[in-house]
């Protein structure tokens, strides 16, 4: 059925165009022969095609434009030649056309020439034309007729500086003509909704939407009249337009025309007539999308304020904020069914306006947030995605403007708005806050601000009760917690006492975050605390005996308790690393008991919690590396810890891992910059033990695989021998090194040897190094000379 209707409409349009073209042909022929009467006759017949009611507005427009082009040619003819007929007679003559629609089109065409001739005041002709057009009350035909009238008259209005301005013709007449035409067109446009059966209402509304520009062009013409100054706009133009908008009581018309007024007239006019414009808003139909209208108005005013600082006093003079705030309150009160998202959009637009015009008035910003809280009160957590998205935009605006979270923290209603966000959106907003801090490199420097900030982002640092058992996307969770970790690193205060309070405050929050979050949040807190320890250490060195309130010892106690919390996760490998970091910091502060305690905790974790063989290998090398750098321990404590480390090394599961850990322990007995720790004999014992383990690994390989394993372990041990040989360990003899060379060479030439290119390259590099030292000469070269590689 629909396709049949479209095909019929195409046929009717084609027939209309054919009839129009035929009559246009005869009209042109009459014009060529200067036969005015025939020209008018055929032009009237041509225009009779516009009397159809069968076409949709879109198709009617196609036909209208064909007729419009022909009428322009007729108008040109009347301007250039009168054919012995005065313009007044011509004006009378066209009124003899049989049908009213062709008669009025011809009257408008000749009327345009009449005004151009200046034989009569422009206002009289315009008034006559606008009144005569009332003869067409069919909505579509009437709209296009009045659109034609507007089109041909817009350059002939008695405006300031216009050739048609005179004693009898004023700007007031031009404004009155355009307003009258606008009012009549709007009435026709509104009447369209009542034409036809109710079942076709949706189609009619679509057709009305297509025709809206015909009505809106009148407002554009008004805005282009030079004589419409602020006084005339305020006293005449705007009140008349708004009266028509309110009285038409049509949702589509009210929304479109309010938007038109905002878009076509200058910003400074809107600012000076804000009260008049806003007073119309509560009078509109409840179904009108007034939030969009007001948002666009505030957007224009915001851009106007941002364009120049010189205009800002005007905003203060007219008290723009108060008027807009009051209007929004009335609109929200009047439209009780307005969705939450709509109200938040209004507050968001008002906030953007305020941040542009009154950036220094935090009380205005907080007032807007407070109004938003009032609207949201009793609603609980919002589940409307549009509303929550708008609240995120609302809360993000101050962060983007001030580029400083500390300013946002001064707003009492900021956290109260966030309370209405659902858990997912709350996390999004918390992420936005953290990103703002990171982007602007903001350091949060007081306990009060830290507490306020962590209350804002508590969605990221603590599980809500209702979401406790829900599945959380692992990747998103990790990203969120990494952002919190970055935030903890941004907390800083020059005063150690205040910084310690900040650390304790953060610790209080993160320990409530549950075991899943601790591996992300504890490490940055530990490292931030260690920064404070090192600052205190340098201050103590410079303070010459002055007492510093927060001592490193006190901080280490807090750190010990904090790392213990990780046992609930458990993540023993992470806890062990943190204990070793703290031990190293305690070493720098010369706190032997504290450092020993941290090492003890690390050893307990190793023995009781770390069972995976790979994790054990990593852990023992971390222990050896850290212990090797410790200088604070006395002989007894160091021997105890060293003995434990070598014991752990020898008990690793895999022989190669055992071997590498044992020869790494040799460094515990020989520290280059500490003469008291240079026990060559125990170094040699470690290396020999490593060599025995390597031999055992080789034999096991032969027994299980029938082939010898790699000689890589022997080459690594050889390099350790060479290292200590260079450092002056008298226990490392040339003969021992020579014996190792022969062992490696024999093994590499063995038929059972598994090829290992990496080991071959390592051995070749070692040989080149020895050769290089010999060629280089000096004391070191002389030491290497006896070695026959």
UniProtKB/TrEMBL annotation:
Localisation: Cytoplasm; Endosome membrane; Golgi apparatus, trans-Golgi network membrane; Prevacuolar compartment membrane
GO biological process: intracellular protein transport; retrograde transport, endosome to Golgi
InterPro entries per the UniProt record, alphabetical: ARM-type_fold, Vps35, Vps35_C
SUPFAM superfamilies reported for this sequence: ARM repeat (SSF48371)
Keywords: Cytoplasm, Endosome, Golgi apparatus, Membrane, Protein transport, Transport
Topology of this chain in the membrane: Peripheral membrane protein
Any one Gene Ontology cellular component term annotated for this protein: late endosome
Signal peptide range: none
Keyword Chaperone annotated: no
Reported function: Plays a role in vesicular protein sorting.
Record-stated family: Belongs to the VPS35 family.
UniProt-recorded name of the protein: Vacuolar protein sorting-associated protein 35
